[in-house]
UniProtKB/TrEMBL annotation:
It comes from Levilactobacillus spicheri. The keyword Transmembrane applies. The chain crosses the membrane at residues 14-35, 41-61. This is XRE family transcriptional regulator. Keywords: Membrane, Transmembrane, Transmembrane helix.
Length: 136
């Protein structure tokens, strides 16, 4: 009998990584007691658990969006300068993904989600016209 590996999409991998990080946060909070309701209050405990979940979701969404831009840019043969030209109102402190040297994790502040979303909105139609399969 042969056991086959489950093939996960990029989005599923990032979702699993985000959930795993949140579980680590919850386990750390429980074992160390730093969010014990008797110490910080029930409202603050609930607040921080929701903040942890929100950060895990943001981590997932930002990294998936970043990887999607890199995927489409590589398939379309675009480089960092091409992507910069697609975002005319780029601030001095902001940057775009570099398809030639992508980071494993999306740079937290250097590449903002607004820039990534703007690039995705422009790259998806181009990819469809070029018959590039959607990012999974």
């Amino acid at each position: 009998m042969r056991i086959e590996m489950i093939k996960l999409t990029h989005k599923q991998r990032w979702a699993l990584l985000s959930v795993a990080l949140y579980i680590v946060f919850v386990i750390a909070a429980i074992t160390t007691g730093f969010l014990d309701p008797s110490k910080v209050g029930l409202q603050w405990t609930i607040f921080w658990y929701f903040c942890g979940a929100g950060l895990a979701y943001y981590f997932y969404f930002k990294n998936v969006s970043y990887r999607e831009v890199v995927y489409y840019a590589q398939k379309l043969g675009l480089h960092k300068d091409d992507l910069k030209a697609m975002v005319p109102k780029l601030k001095e402190t902001q940057d775009v993904p570099d398809p030639d040297k992508p980071n494993f994790f999306s740079p937290f502040a250097k590449v903002p989600i607004t820039v990534v979303n703007e690039l995705t909105d422009q790259l998806e139609p181009q990819a469809q016209q070029a018959n590039i399969p959607p990012y999974k």
